[in-house]
Amino acid sequence: MKRVRISEIRGGEILANPVISSEYHVLLAEGTVLQKEYIENLKDLGITEVYIYERRIERSRGEIKSANREIEKICEARVKNILEQHVYQDNRELEKLRETATVIIENILEEENVTNRMLEIKERNADIYEHSLNCCVLSIILGMRFNLKSNVLHAIGTGCLLHDMGLRYISVKYNNVDINNMPENQKIEYKKHSIYGYSSIEKENWLDEVSKNIILYHHERLDGTGYPFRRKKLTREVSVMSICDTFDEMICGIGCKQKKVYKAVEYLKSNKDVKFDGKIVDEFLKIIAVYPIGSYVLTNTGEIGMVVRQNEKFPERPVIRIINDDGRTVYKGMILDLLKENSVFIEDVID
């Protein structure tokens, strides 16, 4: 963080410390996105300096970092705080998520070559708030690959942050549970979450139709097997989000059994042009590392290796280091570039 004078603030900065009045009242909370009207109000109150987060972009290849870790945590905390306090159809606080979407988009745009870089996303246990944030980042990057306009990207981002709000209105346990194996009454209740979410915000004028459609239709599929309406025609914006949502749900175990990244990739591949728009799936898979760095893999030759580098444009053919199978002892110099070793391929991922 750094201390800056109010006169140097241009708008869009994020408060690292709360702004407190001389009477010890919190005027602006930590994590607030400074808008121009806030800046003018602070000047009128005689406040001359504030602490903001520095937007240092971490350039590690292949990792999703919409900003530095501090900003990323703030975005997730804001999503969680706003949604947890939300009461059905009391939407006064929800509009603040548009600001959060703006912060995410701005930081993605600051990333160098972000739309052409392979993203390292590992399976993880996640709540709906982290999942919503990750869907937002993935969907915006994917939307940028289709040159979607900024207002559309913003609507997609906002819709992603709100898309699973309906899960808060159900009592069904859905973490690492396959909905197809739920008792019928629980399955029916779970599948209502998109309707619950949509009905809560459908009359809000501040929310774009693109965002509302994402909330309502993100589980629909082109072959009519989705829910809640078995709708077959989907807009490109909904298709972009639903592909990112499906992938992230699978590796988090939200509404399904948690799966390895490569299994989620296989699912999207096998269902492109069936459940999902094939062109969008192809673009999505170009930026996803099938075997994230650090993964242990088994080759068709019986060797165990650790992924140490990606080959851009060839996500299924990474560079691996061969290791002993009695632990994690590395054979020095045993590096295989699977892009060059055509007879070697990965058969499985090892925990």
Note down, in words, how this protein is organized.
The protein has helices at 36-44, 69-85, 96-110, 128-145, 150-162, 184-190, 193-201, 209-217, 236-252, 261-270, 278-286, and strands at 2-5, 19-20, 26-28, 49-52, 296-299, 304-309, 319-323, 330-337, 346-350. It is globular. The model is unreliable at 56-68 (pLDDT under 50). With 351 residues, the protein is of the alpha+beta class. It starts with a strand and ends with a strand. The chain contains 11 helices and 9 strands. Helix 3 crosses helix 4 (128-145), helix 5 packs across helix 8 and helix 8 crosses helix 9. Strands 8-7-6-5-9 form a 5-stranded antiparallel beta sheet, with no helix packed on it. The protein has a two-stranded antiparallel sheet with strand order 1-4.
Bulk shape = globular
**Element string (H = helix, E = strand):** EEEHEHHHHHHHHHHEEEEE
Per DSSP E runs of 2 or more residues, the count of β-strands stands at: 9
Overall average pLDDT: 86
Structural class comes to alpha+beta
Q: Any idea what the radius of gyration is?
A: 22 Å
Question: Regions with pLDDT < 50 over 5+ consecutive residues?
Answer: 56-68
Strand content: 5-15%
Number of helices: 11
Helicity, as a percent range: 25-40%
Order of strands across the main sheet: 8-7-6-5-9
Gap from first CA to last CA: 38 Å
Largest sheet: 5 strands, antiparallel
